[in-house]
């Protein structure tokens, strides 16, 4: 199947690399307003370059469009791609508002095309193993969870492009960084029911938050604390998720949440827990999440089934972020 990438910034490189490593996939075209950004893809992948998105969409050889532009532009591009019956893979967050998200989902449904959202952290080996543990019921009833993203994004990071750190096109640490971890929490713990949050812009000169702390109550009754920042000195400090259950405590962590830090489960020996930890440490990154999502899109088209991470999945994660923002602004608990 032939892929086309719109938006040839940093994240497009991961999409191109994924396409390169998938049997039967080809990067057929790229689109960007700046021709020089397309040049590496023209040289390495022999992709056709376009500066006009709609002109690219008129090419009948393109099957799937990967939207890698700033988040605030996702909706208008997705609607156009759907109009031309192209299947869509859109980078996280799916959009910046629920209204735009609904536009994307509606366009995909009405035009009978597949829509996938890039939440690649689900497919790290440690994340998959934790999901397996939770689904097995070994932890018993979940009491609460702790989600931490304490990273460094210096002012130079936000100054790279004028859209970074803006309300309209980027969002803050919740929308841009911690949304991956929120997606994991939702995947592990189910439907969110209530949220409460506080955030601030402490150290970076941006329109949005660089530090946030929030609480989620899930349908099950479990409560999760979410603490995120981009102000940590001098480098990324911690990315972790800890699940506390009646029969066990499990923590995945490190600077990029790639490893098991603790596996303490009723009936599981220390030897078995160590074996699980060591099996992950042998290959902590596994198959890149982008590659899995893109490959799955091809299979979902062939099998006519929903993609592995759907538009609705993207909408749920976005909804939590937006309600965190609203709770912080209005200084109150919100029911979703």
Give a structural overview.
The protein is an alpha/beta fold and 336 residues long. The chain has 2 domains: 2-120 and 289-309, NAD(P)-binding Rossmann-like Domain (Rossmann fold, 3-Layer(aba) Sandwich), CATH 3.40.50; 122-286 and 318-335, 2-Layer Sandwich (Dihydrodipicolinate Reductase, domain 2), CATH 3.30.360.10. The chain contains 11 helices and 14 strands. The protein has helices at 12-20, 35-45, 53-57, 74-83, 98-110, 125-135, 155-158, 173-189, 270-281, 289-303, 311-330; strands at residues 2-6, 26-31, 48-50, 64-67, 87-91, 115-118, 142-150, 192-200, 211-218, 223-229, 238-245, 248-253, 259-265, 334-335. An 8-stranded mixed β-sheet has the order 13-12-11-7-10-9-8-14. It has a 6-stranded parallel β-sheet with strand order 3-2-1-4-5-6, sandwiched between helices. α2 (35-45) links the parallel β2 (26-31) and β3 (48-50).
For the record, the CATH class of the largest domain is Alpha Beta
The H-and-E topology, N to C, reads as EHEHEHEHEHEHEHHEEEEEEHHHE
Structural shape: globular
Q: Which strand-content bin applies to the residues?
A: 15-25%
Keywords:
336 residues; alpha/beta; 2 domains; eight-stranded mixed beta sheet; six-stranded parallel beta sheet
């Amino acid at each position: 199947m032939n892929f086309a990438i719109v938006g040839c910034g940093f994240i497009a490189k991961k999409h191109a690399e994924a396409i390169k490593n998938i049997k039967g996939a080809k990067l057929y075209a790229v689109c960007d307003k700046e021709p020089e950004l397309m040049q590496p893809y023209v040289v390495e992948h022999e992709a056709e370059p376009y500066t006009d998105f709609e002109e690219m969409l008129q090419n009948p050889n393109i099957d799937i469009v990967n939207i890698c532009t700033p988040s605030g532009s996702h909706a208008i591009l997705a609607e156009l791609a759907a109009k031309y019956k192209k299947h869509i893979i859109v980078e996280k967050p799916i959009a910046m508002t629920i209204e735009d998200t609904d536009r994307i989902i509606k366009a995909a449904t009405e035009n009978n095309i597949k829509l996938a959202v890039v939440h690649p952290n689900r497919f790290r080996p440690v994340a998959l193993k934790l999901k397996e543990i939770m689904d097995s019921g070994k932890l018993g009833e979940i009491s609460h969870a702790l989600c931490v993203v304490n990273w460094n994004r210096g002012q130079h990071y936000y100054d790279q492009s004028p859209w970074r750190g803006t309300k309209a096109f980027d969002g803050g640490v919740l929308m841009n960084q911690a949304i991956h971890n929120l997606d994991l929490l939702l995947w592990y713990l189910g439907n969110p029911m209530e949220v409460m949050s506080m955030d601030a812009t402490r150290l970076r000169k941006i329109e949005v938050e660089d530090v946030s702390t929030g609480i989620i109550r899930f349908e099950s009754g479990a409560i999760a604390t979410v603490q995120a920042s981009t102000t940590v000195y001098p480098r990324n400090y911690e990315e972790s998720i800890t699940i506390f259950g009646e029969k066990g405590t499990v923590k995945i962590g490190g600077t990029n949440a790639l490893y098991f830090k603790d596996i303490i489960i009723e009936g599981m020996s220390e030897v078995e827990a160590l074996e699980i930890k060591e099996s992950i440490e042998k290959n902590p990154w596994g198959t890149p999440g982008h590659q899995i999502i893109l490959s799955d899109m091809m299979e979902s088209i062939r099998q006519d089934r929903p993609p592995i991470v759907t538009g609705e999945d993207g909408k749920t994660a976005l909804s939590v972020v937006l309600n965190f923002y609203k709770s912080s602004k209005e200084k109150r608990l919100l029911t979703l």
